[in-house]
Amino acid sequence: IPFEGEPPRAVDAEVVENATVRSIPVRGAPVCGFAAFLDGRQESRLIAWVGPGVPLVVGTVSAGIQRRDGRRLRSWGRTLVERRIYGPLALVDAGRLRAACHPIPVADTLTGDDVAAQGLHPILLQERARQAVARHREVCEQRVAAQWCETQDAPLFIDGGIAASEALARSPVAIGVVKSHRTIYGGAEGMEAALSLGPAERTPVVRIAPRGRTPVFSWYLRLRDPAGRDAFWGLVRIEVAQDPAPGGRAELVSRWVLAEGAPIAAPDARWDRMAYGVRAVEQALGAVAQPAWRS
Fold first, then answer.
1. What is the mean pLDDT of residues 266-290?
2. Which residues, including other chains, have CB under 8 Å from residue 256's CB and lie 6 or more apart?
3. Would you give the distance in Å from CA 18 to the centre of its chain?
4. Mean pLDDT over the full length of the chain
5. Residues contacting 157, CB < 8 A, separation 6+
6. How far apart are CA 216 and CA 74, in angstroms?
7. Is 210 or 132 the better-scoring residue by pLDDT?
8. Biggest CA pair distance of the chain
9. Which of 2, 21, 110, 157 has its CA 20 to 30 A from that of 132?
10. Which residues have a Cβ under 8 Å from the Cβ of 282 and sit 6 or more positions away?
11. pLDDT tens column, 221-245
12. What is the DSSP string of 93-128?
């Protein structure tokens, strides 16, 4: 069952860079600026039905950092690997389930809004479980990233946004690089600007403040020539802490991100937007975070 996530949308954002154009060429050659890369991994599987239409899902999540050591990447700090059983606890004997699953923790997939849990569709319950696994992975990524930001002073390439964590959103070394674009910031004009970028061009910096998240500065950057491809080819969105000189910060970080386009992250299908260092993290996590049904 696919994880749908939030519906695609374009939202307004405040432009904070003094720019009169919609596309800005990144000046200067790409330069290696990142000391390390962070990513997470998740796997989930339906393992049982409890009664009619009540699914149980096992989810394994992991997060880790690969740090540059000369021309090699090596694991840094503690790699987190956590596993949970996910189910709608209002529809099962929660105590008996926890006892049966011990020592694996059991997580509830229902929320306070699910006042009519008895009427929820079984497929929706499975989607809720997969969403809960994704949230757990995000929390693990934030914990690992926070360890880096608390102890290191070198830039960290984070696969994904940083606004969900106040510690990351305020850190000068946390750089979030977003590859998916279900939400496009800047409204209709910003969307047209982002999708019209040429290679090594970026949009002006905007301030985004999603509800419940810490405000950050953000801009779109085109990594590769989209000619003959779809509008999102090679397009990423970068998030950094708010800075008194947004344009200068965007120029420098864009050069760092462009430098990570080689070598390409093939054979991953997302190689047009993925840094090679992030693929290295995913491969390392795949070696240490085997799901319960494979162990």
1. 88
2. 30, 31, 32, 33, 34, 155, 157, 175
3. 29
4. 90
5. 34, 36, 37, 38, 175, 177, 256, 257, 260, 275, 277, 278
6. 29
7. 132
8. 63
9. 157
10. 39, 41, 268
11. 999 999 999 999 999 999 999 999 9
12. -HHHHHHHHTTS-EEE---TT-TTGGG--HHHHHHH
Run of H or E including 284: helix 276-288
The listed range with the strongest mean pLDDT (18-27, 103-112, 213-222) is 213-222
Q: Which amino acid, one-letter code, is at 123?
A: I
In contact, 55 and 130? CB cutoff 8 Å: no
State how far the Cα of 143 lies from the Cα of 66, in Å rounded to an integer.
15
Nearest to 19 by CA among 205, 208, 190: 205
The shares of helix, strand and coil residues in the chain, as percent rounded to the nearest 5, are 30, 30, 40
**pLDDT confidence band for 112 (50 / 70 / 90):** low
Is residue 142 packed enough to be buried (19+ CB in 10 Å), middle (13-18) or exposed (0-12)?
Answer: buried
Phi then psi dihedrals of residue 181, to 5 deg: -135, 50
Give the helix/strand (H/E) hosting 276. Answer: helix 276-288
- Could you give phi then psi for residue 69, rounded to 5 degrees? -135, 90
SS3 272: coil
Q: Are 37 and 73 in contact (CB under 8 A)?
A: yes
- pLDDT of 252 over the 90 cut: yes
Distances (CA, A) of 91 to 49, 52, 102, 108, 119: 11, 10, 19, 10, 11
